[in-house]
Write a structure and sequence with these properties.
It is a single chain. Among the domains are: 75 residues; 215 residues, hypothetical protein PF0899 domain (hypothetical protein PF0899 fold, 2-Layer Sandwich), CATH 3.30.2320. It is 31% helix and 21% strand. The protein has nine helices and twelve strands. The strands form three sheets. A six-stranded mixed beta sheet has the order 5-12-9-6-8-7. Strands 1-10-11-4 form a four-stranded mixed beta sheet. Strand 7 and strand 8 form a beta hairpin. Helix 1 runs antiparallel to helix 2. The radius of gyration is 35 Å and the shape is elongated. The two termini are 48 Å apart.
C-alpha cells in the first residue's frame, strides 16, 4: 500500500508531536523488520516498498523539522514563564493594613515646616507690605539649630539586601538535546559494527558461477565513565541563606552538564574521558581553503551523503563557535545586502537547511556536522545525582560537601557519519 502524507501533525501540541515522531519511526522500523530475511539478515524489498520507505523518510524529516521548531518555541515559553514567575514573586515592601487597627488616630498639632514658619513670620509679612527687598534678622521660634551631623560623623541608613542573585555568565549546554539518550545497567556498552561490506553482485550467464560478496563485523565497546564535581559549604552559610541551597544545586548541575557537553565534543576517549565527535574514528574533514565557509560546509555535506569518504548519511546539525557563526551570519553580497537577511530580523539559525548549534564548547575555527540523531547515543548508567555529606574533620568544622555526579557513555556508531570544516 502506498504511503499517504498527512498534515494533521501541524495541529498537534508539543508533547503529542514528540509521540507522533516516535510513532512514525516505529512504523518505519516495522517495515524494515517485515522485509528482513531472518536467515541472513538481508533486506528483501520490491520497488513499491522501497518507494514507501523513501516517502516515509522524507515525511519524517519534514515532521522532525516542525518538531525542532516547536521545541525551540517551547524553550522560549519555559524561559518566559520562569521570568514571569520571578517577577511576580518579588517580596512585598509594605503591608496594606492600618497601623491603628481601624481606630481613629489621635489628633495632634500639625507640624509646620521651616519654610512655612518663614513666610508666616511677622518680619517677612512686614517687608512684603513695605515693599522693601532687603535682608532682615529673623528669630525662628520652634527650631533649635545644632552642629550639622553628616554621614561621615554619623552613620548611613540601614539597607537590607534583596534575595536576588545575579549568576556568573556562563554557557548553556545544548548538544545533549540533539542526541538520543537511554539508560543502561552496563559498565561497558558493547555493540557490533559492520566493518566489511564487499558487494560483488553482478550479472551471470547461464550455468556460470555468481560472484562472491563479503560482510564482516567487529565488536566495539565504550566504557561508562564518571563525571562530577563538589562544593564545600559551611552549615552557617546554608542556615543564613537556606533558600540559596536550591540555587547552589542548580549551578552544580549546570557545571556537570557543561563538562558532559565538552567531553561529547572533544573528549579524547582515554579513560576516564569520553570519546567525543572530534576524535571519532573515520571522522571526515573538509578544509575551507579558498572557499567561503558555506561552500566548504556544503562540500562536507556531500562527503557525508556519499561522496569522498562515503558517509552515506543525511546530516541534521552543524556546530559552530560564536565567532565563526558571526562571520557566516554577517556575509554580504556585492551590493552590501546581508545574505542571511536584514539585521532588523532574527534571521535563520540554519545552514543549507540544517539546524545550527552555536556554542563555545567547540574550538574556534572548526565546524562540526553529522547525523547526531541516528548514529550516536548517550547511554546513562544513572541520571545526575546530588549527594550531601561530610569528610575528614568537617563534622567539628560545621562543613558540608555538596557533590554532583553522573555516569554515562557516548557511543558513536559510525565515525564517517560526522565531519569537520577546518581552518574557518
Amino acid at each position: 500500500m502506498a504511503f499517504e502524507k498527512n498534515d494533521n501533525y501541524k495541529n498537534l501540541g508539543f508533547p503529542q508531536l514528540g509521540e507522533y515522531v516516535a510513532k512514525q519511526r516505529e512504523e518505519l522500523k516495522g517495515i524494515f523488520d517485515a522485509h528482513t530475511d531472518s536467515g541472513n539478515g538481508q533486506y528483501r524489498m520490491n520497488e513499491e516498498v522501497i518507494k514507501e520507505i523513501r516517502e516515509r523518510n522524507d515525511f519524517l524529516g519534514e515532521v522532525t523539522k516542525h518538531w525542532e521548531g516547536m521545541r525551540e518555541v517551547d524553550s522560549i515559553f519555559q524561559k518566559n514563564r520562569e521570568e514571569l514567575t520571578r517577577l511576580n514573586t518579588e517580596p512585598v515592601k509594605s503591608m496594606p493594613f492600618s497601623p491603628n487597627n481601624g481606630t481613629k488616630p489621635e489628633t495632634k498639632a500639625e507640624a509646620k515646616s521651616l519654610g512655612e514658619l518663614f513666610i508666616n513670620s511677622d518680619e517677612y509679612k512686614q517687608n512684603r507690605v513695605n515693599g522693601i527687598n532687603a535682608r532682615f534678622g529673623w528669630d525662628v521660634k520652634g527650631y533649635e539649630f545644632k552642629t550639622t551631623m553628616t554621614t561621615a560623623a554619623g552613620f548611613a541608613p540601614a539597607n537590607d539586601r534583596t534575595d536576588i542573585v545575579s549568576p556568573y555568565p556562563t554557557r548553556t549546554p545544548m548538544l545533549q538535546d540533539y542526541i538520543p539518550s537511554i539508560t543502561t545497567d552496563l559498565d561497558t556498552v558493547k555493540y557490533m559494527e559492520e566493518t566489511t561490506f564487499t558487494n560483488n553482485a553482478a550479472e551471470a550467464a547461464e550455468n556460470a558461477a555468481l560472484a562472491e560478496s563479503a560482510i564482516a563485523y567487529t565488536e566495539r565497546s565504550q566504557p561508562v565513565e564518571l563525571v562530577g564535581t563538589f562544593l564545600p559549604v559551611t552549615e552557617q552559610q546554608l542556615e543564613i541563606a537556606e533558600a540559596i541551597r536550591g540555587t547552589i544545586d542548580q549551578r552544580l548541575l549546570l557545571m556537570l552538564a557543561q563538562r558532559e557537553e565538552s567531553q561529547m565534543i572533544a573528549g579524547n576517549g582515554s579513560t576516564p574521558n569520553l570519546r567525543g565527535f572530534l576524535n571519532a574514528s573515520n571522522l571526515q574533514t573538509q578544509a575551507k581553503g579558498s572557499d567561503s565557509v558555506p561552500t566548504a560546509a556544503y562540500k562536507l555535506i556531500t562527503k557525508l551523503r556519499g561522496g569522498a569518504g562515503a558517509g552515506f548519511v543525511e546530516p541534521n546539525l552543524f556546530i559552530f563557535h560564536p565567532n565563526d557563526w558571526q562571520d557566516i551570519r554577517t556575509l554580504q553580497d556585492a551590493n552590501g545586502n546581508y545574505i542571511w537577511g536584514s539585521p532588523a530580523e532574527a534571521g535563520p539559525e540554519r545552514l543549507w537547511g540544517k539546524a545550527v548549534l552555536v556554542t563555545t564548547a567547540i574550538t574556534e575555527n572548526t565546524g562540526l556536522a553529522g547525523d547526531f540523531q541516528m548514529y550516536s547515543t548517550i547511554w546513562r548508567k544513572r541520571g545526575a545525582r546530588i549527594d550531601v555529606g561530610m569528610q575528614n574533620d568537617d563534622f567539628v568544622k560545621n562543613k558540608l560537601t555538596l557533590k554532583v555526579t553522573s555516569r554515562l557513555a557516548l557511543v558513536i556508531y559510525r565515525g564517517s557519519a560526522y565531519g569537520t570544516v577546518t581552518s574557518i
